[in-house]
Design a protein that fits this description.
By secondary structure, the chain is α/β, with parallel strands linked by helices. The chain folds into four domains: about 130 residues, Rossmann fold (3-Layer(aba) Sandwich), CATH 3.40.50.2300; about 170 residues, Rossmann fold (3-Layer(aba) Sandwich), CATH 3.40.50.300; about 80 residues, Helicase, Ruva Protein, domain 3; about 100 residues, no CATH class. Helix content is about 45%, strand content about 10%. Strands 2-1-3-4-5 form a five-stranded parallel sheet, with helices on both faces. α4 links the parallel β4 and β5.
């Protein structure tokens, strides 16, 4: 990738000379005749390095270096002057300059200095990106991330391949646990931005103020505790991709700011009035019905239309016939390799149990069960028995794979670990143990008959019954169901607002 250099000098001849030298060396060169024009150029389109004269009218090169350092402390600045001194050199370094060269200088000297500055800045930025969470343990890339041979997954691969070459915004939808982030990473891997950062933000995990700072960064002193300048994910992901995970949970205030970034490709840090231009591809995910949320006023319609440029819908695991076997063995191989154990496989009985379960928690639930099975198995054994799988399926209450939305031919309720979309056990499944349940919960299970109950209704009833079992203790309830306390709280809040459950829960 060609690197860009901004040359700042009030003398046209000097700008042309320095620019020609750098152009011959393979750099893309932009010029500015004064410091204020330079700052405007930097804000609209960030260069990889700034080469500036020291003595300029209005704002000196030293002052410009200090301004750039406050705006972007990773952008290297090289100062040029005909009047070199130790004092000036020291002050230049204090103001954030990377290097200092004295006129007249050889062209090679300038080129070497610029290359070193860009290399150093790249290492600093890479470190910041790694700290922000860009690194992952998964060595797969591109379409190799998408495990499964079902027709449904082949269609997903086709969609990923089609949208990847574009720079347009991608919206990935699907139930919780289907692998939306995996698809997002595959899109980035296959895109022209693959050599640049991929960063992710879980929009549901942060409150409004924290999310704003995480996305846009903040200036020193912007709020209590802001003891230094902090770049947000938009800046760190510049020229790369930014995943907005569960974007549907973003507050209206943040939605407005996201809309502006998508429209203008610019934003301001918290506590700053300086506009920063950015080139980031947005990939958003949601497990909610965003069109419905937008029509109900729960999500900005204009933002939805900005996000829904290149949609990808991931099917639930229950609709991916044949993928359970492939995925389960894939996860087992990953786990055994990670833990330094010998290869393992599922016995036929275990395979049958896995294949007949409806997986309300989707791929994430399957991965968790594979992890438990491997960890709890005999270290000397190469076989995963059905006995290491069945208890977890009983706990999570397996569902028949009759329909994606309704459970047919059911005779019990569901209590599931992982992402919640419950159904009931199959007629031929072993009876569930109910001795651990209190009377009301057990009666609920026994009284449930086949009918028109949706999975959402079964989920709600199961959570309410489990809450009563633990006398309203949310942490114990969440642990028993295998979900997060925050997830439980969000579900209860939604149901209370819709008057579907008691306000006392």
């Amino acid at each position: 990738m060609t690197r860009s250099v901004l040359v700042v000098d009030d003398k046209e001849m000097m700008r042309d000379s320095v620019g020609s030298t750098l152009t011959r060396a393979g750099f893309t060169v932009r010029t500015a005749s004064d410091a204020r024009s330079a700052l405007s150029e930097i804000a609209s389109r960030r260069p990889d390095c700034v080469v500036t004269d020291l003595n300029m009218p209005g704002m000196t090169g030293l002052e410009l270096a200090a301004q750039i350092n406050g705006l972007d402390d990773e952008l290297p600045v090289i100062l040029m002057t005909a009047f070199g001194s130790i004092e000036t050199a020291v002050q230049a370094m204090k103001n954030g300059a990377y290097d200092y060269i004295t006129k007249p200088f050889e062209g090679d000297e300038l080129v070497i200095s610029v290359k070193r500055a860009i290399t150093h800045a790249g290492l600093v930025r890479e470190n910041a990106i790694l700290k922000a969470g860009a690194a992952g343990s998964d060595t797969r890339s591109g379409l190799d991330r998408l495990v499964g041979e079902s027709d449904a997954m082949r269609k997903v691969r086709e969609q990923v391949r089609a949208v990847a070459s574009s720079h347009g915004t991608v919206l990935v939808t699907g139930e919780s646990g289907v692998g939306k982030e995996v698809v997002a990473r595959a899109v980035h891997d296959l895109s022209p931005r693959t050599s640049n950062p991929f960063l992710a933000v879980n929009c549901a995990a942060l409150n409004e103020s924290l999310l704003e700072s995480e996305l846009f960064g903040h200036e020193k002193g912007a709020f209590t505790g802001a003891d230094k300048l902090r770049k947000g994910r938009f800046e760190l992901a510049n020229e790369g991709s930014l995943l907005l995970d569960e974007v549907s949970e973003v507050s209206p205030q943040i939605q407005a700011k996201l809309l502006r970034v998508l429209q203008e490709r610019a934003f301001e840090r918290v506590g700053s009035s300086t506009t920063i231009g950015v080139d980031v591809r947005i990939i958003a995910t949601s497990n909610r019905d965003l069109p419905h949320a937008a029509s109900m006023g729960e999500f900005r319609q204009d933002l939805f239309y900005r996000l829904n440029v290149l949609p990808i819908t991931i099917p639930p695991l229950r609709e991916r016939e044949g993928d359970v076997s492939v995925l389960s063995q894939h996860f087992v191989d990953q786990i055994t390799q990670r833990d330094g154990r010998k290869s393992m496989r599922f016995e036929d009985g275990a395979k049958s149990l896995l294949e007949q379960y409806a997986w309300p928690g989707n791929v994430r639930e399957l991965q968790n069960i594979c992890e438990r099975a491997v960890v709890l198995s005999d270290a000397k054994s190469s076989i995963i028995a059905a006995s290491l799988v069945e208890p977890w399926l009983m706990t999570t209450r397996p569902t028949p794979k009759a329909t994606p939305l309704r459970a047919a031919g059911l005779n019990g309720s569901v209590q599931q670990a992982g992402s919640m979309t419950e159904a009931k056990p199959m007629q031929h499944a072993m009876p569930m143990r109910s001795e651990s349940m209190n009377g009301s919960a057990r009666n609920q299970l026994e009284e449930d008959l086949p009918g028109d109950r949706t999975l959402a209704e079964i989920e709600r009833d199961t959570i309410v019954a489990t809450l009563k079992r633990f006398n309203g203790h949310r942490q114990k309830t969440a642990k028993a169901l295998g979900i997060g306390v925050r997830t439980l709280g969000l579900k209860l809040k939604k149901w209370k607002e819709e008057s579907l459950v008691s306000q006392s829960l």
